[in-house]
Amino acid sequence: MVPLAQTERILASDLTQEEVDRRFFAIATDLVGAPTELVDEAGDIAWRSRSTLWGTTAWARSSTAYTPLRFPGQYYDAESGLHYNLHRHYDPETGRYTSPDPLGLAPAPNPVGYVHNPHTMSDPLGLSPYPQGGDGPKIGEYTSKGEGQDLKRSAMVGDDQWHFNTGHGYDRAHTGPGGVQNDLRTTNLNPDQIEQEIVSDVYRYMDNGGTVPTPGPGFSGPLERSVHIDGHDVGYRVIKRPDGAYQLSTYWLN
Predict the structure, then answer these.
(1) Which of 12-16, 79-83, 130-134, 176-180 has the highest mean pLDDT?
(2) Helix, strand, or coil here: 185?
(3) Alpha helix (H) ranges present in 118-236?
(4) Which of 44, 48, 207, 254 is least surrounded by Cβ atoms within 10 Å, i.e. has the fewest?
(5) Where would I find the Teneurin-like YD-shell domain in this sequence (predicted)?
């Protein structure tokens, strides 16, 4: 969600027709898509902002234009000082939302927190950090053993070792609520795609302050979450083994 241009009209009784006519500005943005400059048709900078890490924005009084756009998906409300973010309002002074996430704790363990790093991530809907999925850490080359429901695979993700119970997750039906049978094999998804999306979701979760449980004293069970992949809701369970490797125990179609 990167804005490209802005058009506007200035209406007043004493203005010439040329001034009343619509004005056009190209929008220059930072890495995540927050506006930093408005450039007019003559190539002159009509508005330039200075922002804090969490989005508090200031600009010169001599600016000849203005935009209320802030972080991707956010619109500045001058009366409250908050940023309207579709599903919630964001306070740039505290770097937090003013209300809990409508999705609960699924996107991140802190329901009022913004993204972990505003230089590289955003939350355009006020629901979940972006980028997602394939934009996360990449799974390296797999090694595997077994086949069918017994297929197990291992791979490196950066410096982390991962183990995947691929057969248990993909090559069988899952019984959901009410005894309904769901089967990932009936979708257009494949194991590589599913596991990449899950791994990316786990790292996003940890980037936002979450931890993956390790079996041992005080262990209350694996991390259980779900991720949306091409219109499908896929649940999964993952642990961090005592040896430091991550293990995707299983996954299923919700």
Answers:
(1) 79-83
(2) helix
(3) 166-170, 191-207
(4) 44
(5) 22-101
